[in-house]
């Protein structure tokens, strides 16, 4: 089997949830507000979660969302800088929106998120392509920035805060199926992986008040939601304490508190860092049936010299030790996924083989795979040569995609005949006669609709599979 690069989009069945290549677009909201906001979001789940905060701020200031940019008074692009191609898509999109603006000069265009933070006033001054530039910690300021534009002044806020967590803002759920929701538990990142732009675009790490997180989960459950995903760049370093210092909460304790909201509310989380994930977290997962048996534990590479150059602060042996702990404490059926970068600075053929052998050893359920894209200003861009030719990066990428495709298929084949508890999220992509949901390991399961409903837990007996999806029949 040969795999094309574009298969990246479909290979991990959870891909639509994380690092999605397609933007998420706002839906039509009709609450009586007469000004319209169109918001398009790129990048990671944290960015999607931020768009829900932005929408809440805008809603409180007289805006309803629309799915049609041509009907909007304000267009926001919430952007991602993680790789060069993520930024290119946004430049292209901005040009398209500027054509709309020529027809409708009243239209306000704003750039939000990581690209706004990275490129700051370039959009306003050099390119003259937007009216507003707002970084990830400036969303409370958006109504004022819109006023500034109306009064003819420049509207920029790229200040990065050490405190902002938007804890008191109740997000307006965008694109929601009413069943699964994202909850940001922290912002920023204090790690310094040499390839990564996030510490520069999102600032210092800070944890949100545990009480506001639990209250948000409770409110979602009360409104019929059945699954929450707790989000942070490095959830294992979640750390919160009360002002008097008496109450101290780490990630394992937070997970447990959210799990106790209700046994019918599933809890997921992302992303775990191999250097920080503790046995205490693994035991919390083991103790609570509603904390899903799924861990996204990005390895990035299987070679120690490359891991050192990446400044990941663990080595292959440590990483495999953490995998062993997951298998021992939670069980060998715990879903595990990874992120891999191919062709990082000076990576040799043998070092690439080490990544393949790591993947073979761990047997990941899913993987998100990327070729290295140098980001200006990062430690790697400053100190290391981006010297692996593009063709070699891409060939190595295809090799790891092929390896993952066969592992995913083999893993799914092992499930045939077994029964999985699936939370129904919606219709399958192909037919309204079929439903789709996920099992605890985060694999998509598709089955005949019969009498089953959205938001219901259904026991599905697996009868068939592809590499990305399990297929079966519900059993009562
Ligand atoms: N906080 C998460 C990752 C966030 S970024 C973690 O530490 O695992 C998501 C993924 O994008 C990373 O895991 C990495 O695999 C990939 N990535 C980040 N920077 C990249 C770059 N410069 N080129 C290619 N891929 C990159
Ligand atoms: Fe980037 Fe590393 Fe932080 Fe992840 S942990 S966001 S890869 S710096
Ligand atoms: Fe997320 Fe992209 Fe920013 S991955 S944190 S939106 S650079």
- End-to-end Cα distance, whole Å, is 38 Å
> Ions, cofactors, ligands: which are bound?
S-adenosyl-L-homocysteine, iron/sulfur cluster, FE3-S4 cluster
The domain tally reads 3
CATH topology value of the largest domain: pyruvate-formate lyase- activating enzyme
- CATH homologous superfamily classification of the largest domain: tm_1862 like domain
Radius of gyration: 22 Å
CATH class of the largest domain: Alpha Beta
Strand content: 15-25%
Q: Give the overall shape.
A: globular
User: Can you count the beta strands?
Assistant: 22
Largest sheet descriptor: 7 strands, mixed
Structural class designation:
alpha/beta
Helix content: 25-40%
Second-tier CATH architecture of the largest domain:
Alpha-Beta Horseshoe
Mean pLDDT: 93
Return residue spans where pLDDT drops below 50 for at least 5 consecutive residues: 1-20
